[in-house]
Amino acid sequence: MTSPTDDRSPNLPRGWLRATVVSAVALAFVAAAAGFVAFLAQLRGAELAPDRKADGIVVLTGGSSRVSDAMELLAAGYGRRLLISGVHPTSTANDISRTLPENQSFMRCCVDLDRTAVSTRGNAAEARRWAQERGFKSLIVVTSNYHMPRALVEFSHAMPETALIPFAVVGDKWREEPWWTSASTLRLLLSEYVKYIAAELRVRLEDFGVDLAPEVSEQPAGQPPRRPATAQAN
Q: Model-level pTM greater than 0.90?
């Protein structure tokens, strides 16, 4: 005859494993939720002028009004030159000038175009090259508010000796409605949060000598690195 204790004992390991898995999933969910809240806390809800000037300004293409805001900073004297990073290969300075007619004089004298970068990591690499060629020690980084945390991770890792001053661009949609009421904005934030965490993990591993994703040149094979084109040359 089997005792009650004998009937229960085979189930103990299975119950312990189930409880462990459930606890791990719950902890992971809580950690992810807390991280998302911390990520949101970094996002500015209003555009604030930089607290100081810099040697140069770098704007990352991909969001509405980023370039126009960067041009306004250049016109106001916050930097000596502007790098527009991530310009489409077929776009020219004339294309950009048509959208910013009031800043055409600055396009001719003080703007460089980077058509190489296709990612935030690439933006940081090209900005580093641009800053080093000009001896710039400080940069104002212009991008959308939701993209700024990841941009600063990449830029800080690429150029740790350079002072970075963020200028977060706040889109009209962000101003007009709370992000939690818009499904599309929530999806955007969740996606950006995942990319931000991935970037943080990658650069921290690289700090310990573990490079899971070596930086690959975005130049065509066999060609020397290109310098950003000056707007005047276009």
A: no
Please provide residue 138's backbone torsions phi and psi, each rounded to the nearest 5 degrees. Answer: -145, 140
CA nearest to 118, candidates 212, 10, 218, 222: 218
Q: Which residue has the tokens 């999933």?
A: 25
Q: Please check whether residue 144 is in contact with residue 66, taking contact to mean a CB–CB distance below 8 angstroms.
A: yes
Quick one: pLDDT at residue 222?
A: 47
Q: Tokens at residue 93, please? A: 């300075």
Copy the structure tokens of residue 234.
């276009």
Report the C-alpha gap between 47 and 234 in whole angstroms. 31
- Which residues are CB-contacts of 129 (< 8 A; sequence separation ≥ 6)? 225, 227, 228
Q: What would the 3-class secondary structure string for 90-150 be?
A: CCCHHHHHHHCHHHHHHHHHCEEEECCCCCHHHHHHHHHHHHHHHCCCEEEEEEECCCHHH
Q: Residue 56 in 3-state DSSP?
A: strand
d(CA 143, CA 229): 21
Q: pLDDT per residue over 130-171, tens digit each?
A: 999 999 999 999 999 999 999 999 999 999 999 999 999 998
